[in-house]
């Protein structure tokens, strides 16, 4: 597990697990899962747990997490304060709901909903300017990897965001490397592939390095090998995070 310069020093040696619940679970089910994860996380010393429920479920999850060490976040944010942006949510709205972090640039936003790197960069800048810790997702498609474009794709996505950020904002930035071809497919990037991609990202931060976490079909069977890599500070977890019986083993592995 890597050490990372992220927000406060107390987090320097902790593994970060981020549960991205996507468009799953209703309000009652989300609150129940949050309570179950909280109960399983009462005595953690080496692990941080962050949860990102769907927008309608944020209030219920906030209530379930109140007073705990678990962090609440959102799966996206718009770059404008307000306006005629149907279906979008502002940073101010998320702040009122109790969110502390935001995910931007997830591969499903890029490849399913057509968000460009420019749009992602605007979302990222807004989130950081609004005081949120921000998880910036990067990653290549299978076709891009097979054509040897992994490095170029990652660097292009990263540079688009970094050029608009201030040095002091980097302390609240988390990078999630998520190869598109490994998300929800059951495929997992090989340790060498993960390490290579994380090294490419790290090279853009010659001084304080943000947390670089991995996302892509993470399970209890493969997570120990992933988190043992020195370049990996944790994981962005999708499917396994919406089932407490699958999520708790990941927490136990991280805590070890």
- Tell me the structural class: alpha/beta
Unreliable segments of 5+ consecutive residues: 1-11
According to CATH, what is the topology? Answer: TIM Barrel
Helix content: 25-40%
Describe the protein in words.
The chain is 37% helix and 16% strand. The protein is of the alpha/beta class. An eight-stranded parallel beta barrel has the order 1-2-3-4-5-6-7-8, surrounded by five helices. Strand 2 (47-52), helix 2 and strand 3 form a beta-alpha-beta unit. The chain starts with 14 loop residues before the first strand and ends with a helix.
Key descriptive features of the protein:
single chain, 256 residues, alpha/beta, TIM Barrel, 8-stranded parallel barrel, 16% strand, globular, disordered N terminus
Walk me through the topology.
Layout (H helix, E strand, L loop, with lengths): L14 E6 L6 H14 L6 E6 L5 H8 L5 E4 L16 H7 L3 E4 L2 H5 L5 H13 L3 E6 L3 H5 L3 H13 L10 E5 L13 H12 L8 E5 L7 H5 L6 E4 L6 H12 L1
Parallel strand pairs: 1-2, 1-8, 2-3, 3-4, 4-5, 5-6, 6-7, 7-8
Helix pairs in contact: 1-2, 1-10, 5-7
């Amino acid at each position: 597990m890597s050490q990372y310069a992220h927000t406060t020093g107390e987090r320097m040696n902790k593994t970060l697990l981020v549960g991205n619940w996507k468009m799953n679970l209703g309000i009652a089910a989300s609150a129940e899962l949050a309570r179950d994860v909280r109960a399983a996380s009462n005595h953690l010393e080496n692990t941080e747990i962050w949860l990102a429920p769907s927008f309608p479920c944020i209030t219920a999850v906030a209530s379930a997490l109140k007073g705990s060490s678990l962090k609440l976040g959102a799966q996206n944010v718009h770059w404008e304060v307000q306006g005629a942006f149907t279906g979008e949510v502002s940073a101010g709205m998320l702040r009122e709901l109790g969110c502390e972090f935001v995910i931007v640039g997830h591969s499903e936003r890029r490849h399913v909903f057509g968000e460009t790197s420019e749009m992602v960069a605007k979302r990222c800048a807004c989130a950081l300017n609004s005081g949120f810790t921000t998880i910036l997702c990067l990653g290549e498609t299978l076709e891009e990897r097979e054509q040897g474009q992994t490095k170029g794709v990652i660097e292009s996505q990263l540079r688009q965001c970094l050029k608009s950020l201030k040095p002091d904002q980097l302390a609240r930035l988390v990078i999630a490397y998520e190869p598109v071809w490994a998300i929800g497919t059951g495929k997992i990037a090989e340790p060498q592939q993960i390490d290579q991609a994380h090294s490419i990202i790290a090279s853009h931060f010659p001084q304080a390095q943000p947390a670089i976490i991995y996302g892509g079909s993470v399970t209890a069977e493969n997570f120990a090998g992933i988190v043992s890599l020195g370049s990996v500070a944790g994981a962005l977890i999708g499917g396994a995070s919406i089932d407490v019986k699958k999520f708790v083993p990941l927490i136990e592995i991280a805590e070890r």
